[in-house]
Amino acid sequence: MDIKHYYNPHGEEILDEKIFGGSPSGFVDFNRSKYRWDVNIYDLMNANTWFPSEVNTSAEKKNFDLLTENEQAIYKMTFAQLSFNDSAQEEYLSDFRRLANNRLVKAVLSLQIMQEVNHSKSYAVLLDACGNSEEVFNLYKHDAALNAKNQQVAEQFAKYIDGGSADKMLLSAMASINLEGIYFLLGFSYIYLLGDKVPGARDMIKFIARDELNTHLPLFVNIFKTIKKENDISSQTIEAIYCMIEDAVRIELEYGHYLLDTYPIMGVTHQLMEQTVYNYANDRLKKIGLDPIFEASDTTYLQKLVTKHLDMNDVKSNFFESNVSNYAKSSIDLNDF
Ligand SMILES: [Fe+2]
Ligand SMILES: [Fe+2]
Q1: DSSP-derived 3-state class of residue 250
Q2: CA of 92, nearest ligand number
Q3: Would you say residue 76 lies in a domain?
Q4: Is the dihedral of CA 214, 217, 219, 225 positive or negative?
Q5: Number of structural domains, the chain?
Q6: 179 part of a folded domain
């Protein structure tokens, strides 16, 4: 790596820095943003800063022990998979960030990396309180379906991450949209279904879900749309994007169906899961400016559960820090580039 990587007085103007390709001068200047959404998302991520210690997990073991056997299995299998997602995302983001050119977008990615690490810490805190951390983190060794989902998530991340072209960069960004916008969603709704029985897990997931869906997903939606706008993307790449989200839907439903068939929960059906994942996938496609391709249905009960917990105003008794209630989401436009 030569010195220009860090400092290049003959590099391009800050306002000319694209996401893919170029030679930046080496400054991170929050007062000169080419896009504006990057600064808005950075500010929102900072405003939402939280720490695992803010969640009351003192009764988690007692509450967990009162769950039915199926509920306990769902709890463990859900956290086993979600914790992999965050571990993988941290590593992927470090690779994606290295390939990006615009220094302000890279700065926002740095903050996202920190938040994914915070999510990993939160699983450790929660599962330690629950007394089954080692067991849950080792489940991938014993469960073929869990191992298969992790493997496929990792393969999507790895497939295009060499940054050799704008098209590959776009496909890499799509892997992150799938992670933030598809692979977490059934897991979140499972924990919300257990709800008041395990308030520690529910509240931890509320915070994680808010990061993933209120800021990380919008960040990658904007990165995706910007790469697409700044480069001449081939029609084959767009076709590959559709294939990637079809794969993501299949991967999410395979694991979802497996959990449901093995550990049934009252009120949840294959059809409910399919409608939920299809609706989310259509929404993600619309967000990135592509056509929805999955069978559409009314907003499902599981979607409503997830949406309900995205609202910061319903956080009351369990949190004592004022910073989490000073939530500033509504006034910020995240799609303003
Ligand atoms: Fe995360
Ligand atoms: Fe995330």
Answers
A1: helix
A2: 2
A3: yes
A4: negative
A5: 1
A6: yes
Q: What is the pLDDT of residue 325?
A: 40
Residue 222 exposed, middle or buried by CB count within 10 Å (0-12, 13-18, 19+): buried
Q: Does 280 participate in catalysis according to the annotation? A: no
Say how many Å lie between the CA of residue 275 and the centre of ligand 1.
24
In the numeric block, which tokens belong to residue 82?
């979600």
In a domain, 298, yes or no: yes
The model carries a pTM of 0.93
- Domain residues for the domain of 292 are 35-50+59-316
Ligand located closest to 179 CA: 2
Alpha-carbon distance of 105 to 173, in angstroms, equals 13
Distance 10 CA to ligand 2 centre (A): 35
Q: Report CA(37)–ligand 2 centroid distance (Å).
A: 17
From the candidates 123, 160, 255, 280, which is the catalytic residue? 123
Ligand 1: centre distance to CA 116 (Å): 4
Kindly state whether residue 335 falls inside one of the protein's structural domains: no
Measured from the alpha carbon of residue 85, the closest ligand is 1
Tens-place pLDDT, residues 284-322: 999 999 999 999 999 999 999 999 999 765 544 343 334
User: The domain spanning residue 247 has which CATH number?
Assistant: 1.10.620.20
Give pLDDT < 50 ranges for the chain: 315-331, 336-337
Q: pLDDT, tens digit, for every residue of 68-79?
A: 999 999 999 999
pLDDT for the residue 265: 86
